[in-house]
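does this look right to u?? 6-O-phosphono-beta-D-fructofuranose version
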Amino acid sequence: MKSLRSLPLSIRFVIPLAAALILLAYALVPLVERLTLRWFVRDLDMSSQMIASTLQEPLVELLERGDRARTNALFRRATKDERLFAIGYCDAGGKLLYRTPTFPESLKCPHGDAAKKHSYAVHQLPQGGVHVSSHPIDQEGTKAGSLVLVHDMSFIERRSADTRNYVIILFVVLGVVISLITVFVAHLSWRGWMEGMRAMLRGEGIVKPFIQQAPSSELQPLVGDLRTLLQTLDAERRFADDVTITWNPDSLRRLLQKELAGERIIVVSNREPYIHTRKEGRIEVTRPASGLVTAIEPVMRACSGTWIAHGGGSADRDIVDGRDRIAIPPEHPEYTLRRIWLTQEEEAGYYYGFANEGLWPLCHIAHVRPIFRSSDWQHYVAINQRFADAVVKEADSDNPVVLAQDYHFALLPEMVRRALPKATIITFWHIPWPNPESFGICPWREELLNGMLGSTILGFHTPFHCTNFIETVDRYLEARIEHESSTISRSGKLTLVENYPISIQWPTPWQDTQPSVDECRRKVIQSLGLAPDHLIGLGVDRQDYTKGILERFRAVENMLETHPEMIGRFTFIQIAAPTRSSLDDYQAFDVQVRNLAAHINQRFVKGAYQPICLKSEHHEPEEVNRYYRAADVCMVTSLHDGMNLVAKEFVAARDDERGVLVLSQFTGAAHELYEALIVNPYHIEQTADALYRGLTMPDIEQQDRMRSMRALVRDYNVFRWAGRMLLDAARIRQRERLAARIGSAE
Ligand code: F6P
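got this back:
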């Protein structure tokens, strides 16, 4: 059995097929022999009748004359035909009157009724089979006797033997031909099937990416079934993961060890997690106001590895090693930051220009027109290449796990893929993805899409952004899209487009060290010179036109108009971190924000009281956390936002289960935090009502809502976000390995 298994598959298949055909041939031979015998016997009979009718006349004449010698001569002449073996003539009484010497002794003359009609039979004689036919001879109208013709049948046996051999040879030849054709067809089908299997294992469904052709129709149901099975297994595994894994730094670390063989992670982002700046001769470390950094930093601390980012701080160069690296976090290093340097001109083109004047407004519906300049694009391409080269340099294997972050690096995935075809590249797009028409105005739309499709996994916050992206690819690129599995196949590469709602670290890093809610509140109230029972509203944002800060202020104004009893009792604190300040749109926005705050403050000023407290400066995360804990209501009113982690940070900060979140319906967070007061920020009155409702909400309702939101943020924390992407990546890697193995086993 084992030796049979060691034979090539094709031989293993041909042997039984050939054996079956030979057996069939042997089974058919007796049938063929019987058939041919019947034909020959019938032929012989016909020829006997012809001979008999030819002999009838001369024989009757000779019989009448009683010429024995000439009768014998006639018979001898007739038996010159090699098949006519013997002739005899019997009288009406069944007596043999004339015969050739070869006439077998054992043959009896027909008599009685048998002699009166033609008959024939096959006899077996010692020398072989003979065909004996009897033909009545009429003499003057009466049956005078019968002519008995004996035909030799040995030629039939010879021919039967030949026929048998021919049949067997025919079947053997047929067997070989059928086997070869079958093996050939099976080989082609097998290859197609294996190709399909490999494609499916890679997650391509039944797609053949290179030739854009589905497997043969007869294999399709099987491949389809297998694909469904794999998808079900995936879904079950995902579900099981969600149910069984408690996501925290340890579980993420374990996942890396187990599923990704301890692979070091390489993160690429524009913004660095720690910025070193020189102030009054000293180097200070700050953490930027960035949702991206908030999310990725705890993941990197759990996983370790290398984070490649733009070194934008004034002292960044001063403290890196010879290879532009520094171990961070500064107080307790857990991973490596590799800094990339940009000239001012490069930063102006790639970051301020293409990324923030082009892609940022392009992807956000905030009614600010994108600006696209060719010179910015050139810088964007060059800087993406620089970061991609750094990834390749930092990789210590040919299949590293790379996490590319955000709209600054749309081209990088394809660039890395070209250098490291086996890399697992997970790209996460932190901002919304627009509809195809909106995206279509970008002059380099195809290049951007193509660059992104270098990713193994492409993540967005919401299913809606995934759909927009897939539809955009469908509109502008030649690619094969499998909606069922949410995959895009292009130029032999496959990208899984999936939603992974980003989140924050749980519990917060300050869980054990932060001051109590009461203390936070007391401090904030004191710093503003307010009464202890003063109500506090809070907004925390980068000062960006997408954040709906103006709309929020108008809602505050409207609320004070409709509820004048709140004047003097309520203050809205807006923490607005300066951002992208060199851009015109941001400068103009800054002016608008300041003017509107001043206008509202003027309107409702009451002694030292002003309703809006605008803090346009950078705050470190711990400080922001204290404000979250002090607030009665937190307002997140983005006009359009991928996720908005401020909403989740506020929820995480409130371990007292108090505080109300007013949340824009245009944020990704609104798809998860249903217990927030969801508003349309463009609807000023509605937002004002929500603010008032939040300020006056009974404790018990606050608690119910906050408890439920906290459970969600706890379970769906950032470790789960990263873990889900890494698990998907691990599954894809596993399938690719299996596909490669199937390929080599062929
Ligand atoms: O929202 C997109 C994003 O990249 C966030 O991840 C981050 O909060 C913000 O933009 C950072 O902006 P910047 O790095 O330009 O200050």
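Residues 12-157 form a domain with the Beta-Lactamase fold (CATH 3.30.450.20). idk if thats expected tbh
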